[in-house]
Amino acid sequence: MDTDTGHDFERDLNLQDLLLGIDKQRLATALQALLGAPIAIFDPRGACLLGASEPTNDIPGLPLYGELEPIGTIAAAVPQDRLKAAADLLKLLLHTNARYLMASDLHLQTQQDDFDELQRRHNALEQSEQRYKALAENLELRVKQQVQTIEQTQLKLYEAEKLASVGRLAAGIAHEINNPIGFIRSNLTTATSYLASLDKIGALLPTCQDIAALKTAWQREDMDFIRQDMRDILAESISGTERIAAIVKDLKGFSRVDETEWEEADLNVLIRQVCNVAAAELRGKAELQLDLGALPLLHCHPGELGQVFLSILLNAADAMGAQGSIRWRTAFQDNRIVIEVRDTGRGIAEADMPHIFDPFFTTKEVGKGMGLGLSVSRNIVQAHGGELTIASRPNTGTRVTISLPVKPGS
Amino acid sequence: MAIFDEENNRLSIKLVYYGPAQSGKTTNLMRLHDILRPDLKGDIMLMETANDRTLFFDLLPLGFKAPSGLLIKFKLYTVPGQVVHDSTRKAVLSRADGVVFVADSQRTQSTNNGEAFANLEDNAARVGIDFDRLPLVVQFNKRDLSDILTEAEVLQRWQAAPWPVLFSSALTGEGVVETFHALLNRVYDGLDREFEFQNRHLLSREAFAAQASGQIDRQAY
């Protein structure tokens, strides 16, 4: 497995390897001095590694052993026993060198292996870091997209809730507007017929010689009555158009939900507008009482708060069994605007109380409510830094309290 | 895996003595060096520190010639038992043809034995040895000491294991040759399959073990 590292400690060591690091000149000199004759060392192929350059047949030689097998020859013109002693000495030297070579090769081999392993782990770590980085970036992007989707959905729900409550009012408001339009049209028809009478008198003017004939015609057409009635119906019509203008104004003031800008607003005015807009819806169900104290202007989103007031008002109206009353009270205390709406309706069942702010929770029959009114209302109030709380007693009534902070200097 | 050197007509077989620190791996090798008398026996190479801890490995080369003329060379290695020398253990274990796991019989050493054996299994996998097919014998050493697991206890614990379990006292040389023989016996099958010991080299199982140990010199110890 590890043979490719170049440091295989198990490789066969030849004589040349084993002489590595040994000062050959000193070795040769020492051996020659001990033996008293020139020595030579050859590898198995006969190449001279130490001493005389050529192996000669007449000089006696002895094999040098490595682990098990001969790895070379030592030759010197000395008796066998002395040559053997020299060979033994050399063998001890080579054995020690073999130990060193094997140990250092093994050391290099394990170092290399450890380094490779470290490198491999490092690379793996780097890769996984890259993966996590990519994942994190991806995640961030996806969270952003999700948040965007949720925000858009929420916006649509707000829209839907607003349209639902406005839609409920549409019939009543149409009636409110239709009524003055009806008598204005009738008055205008009458005025047109009065114009016919005036024409007849007018036709006499170019030919008429005496004033008496004109007077007769004036009386025949009952112009005195016409003059008076004309004044009355015009005044009535003007007041009718004023009523329509007022309704449109309230409606406009209330329906500015699309305007995202914050502005200074008088919440009492806003409450009155909402009550006017919902007047038709309340008629015959509940008597409205407004007990509005002096309020400072509030830096707010009037369209959204109007939606809150309308939701609460319509809830109160829906809670009415027989004729009841809905009482608005506003006050400014401790730098907060407190708005309280009490109704004498049927109240909220105790089991429903924990769920009233849950989105899509409704006790109304299908088609009458989306179950978003209170959930959206609370969100809007909280967005204004305020609180919306509800207290209710079954068969007695419900009290909704909105408390909004007025920031100093705003 | 054994390495066949065609040029020199030589087969090198690597046997490794593995086990926890100070369980007697080096002593096993020293006794084999003293006792065995094969045709060829090299000098034992010991690499130990002053306090008798093996640093890199110990090596005992042995060899004999098969009737076919093939030189069969054994390289018996020990690994350093200390936990820190794991890289060295791994390198020495690499390409092993057979392993003796030298366990310490002392009761206090059971945990070390277990960890060393798990380490052997792990390292075998790391160097590409199929542990299930690796010729392995287990030797419970230091039978001469007191407070050791009884043979019955050891055998009962290793009952389910597929490896032969032997008992030894390496200090006195008892069981050391038997362990070596048990490993040769297990190594023989694979080598016979790969190198046709019986058919091509006329080397029987019995001759393989006998020649590897040669004339055993029981008088040495």
UniProtKB/TrEMBL annotation, chain A:
Per UniProt, the keywords (alphabetical) are:
ATP-binding, Coiled coil, Nucleotide-binding, Phosphoprotein
| Entry-linked InterPro entries | HATPase_C_sf, HATPase_dom, His_kinase_dom, HisK_dim/P_dom, HisK_dim/P_sf, Sig_transdc_His_kin-like_C
Give the reaction(s) catalysed.
ATP + protein L-histidine = ADP + protein N-phospho-L-histidine
The EC number(s) attached to this protein equal: 2.7.13.3
PROSITE patterns linked: HIS_KIN (PS50109)
Residue limits of the Histidine kinase domain?
172-408
**Care to name a GO molecular-function term for this sequence?**
ATP binding
Query: Which residues, by range, are in coiled-coil regions?
Result: 108-156
* SUPFAM superfamilies per the UniProt record, alphabetical: ATPase domain of HSP90 chaperone/DNA topoisomerase II/histidine kinase, Homodimeric domain of signal transducing histidine kinase
Tree of life domain: Bacteria
Q: Where is the signal peptide?
A: none
What protein is this chain from?
A: histidine kinase
Q: Which organism is it from?
A: Methylomonas rivi
Automatic annotation (TrEMBL), chain B:
List, alphabetically, the CDD domains matched: Ras_like_GTPase (cd00882)
**Pfam families, alphabetized:** Arf
Per the database entry, which stretches of residues form a coiled coil? none
Return the InterPro entries for the record: Gliding_Motility_GTPase (IPR052705), P-loop_NTPase (IPR027417), Small_GTPase_ARF/SAR (IPR006689)
The question of whether Nucleotide-binding is a record keyword is answered with yes
Keywords recorded for this protein, A-Z: GTP-binding, Nucleotide-binding
Where is the secretion signal located? Answer: none
Q: Does GTP-binding appear among the keywords?
A: yes
Name this polypeptide is given: GTPase domain-containing protein
Source organism? Methylomonas rivi
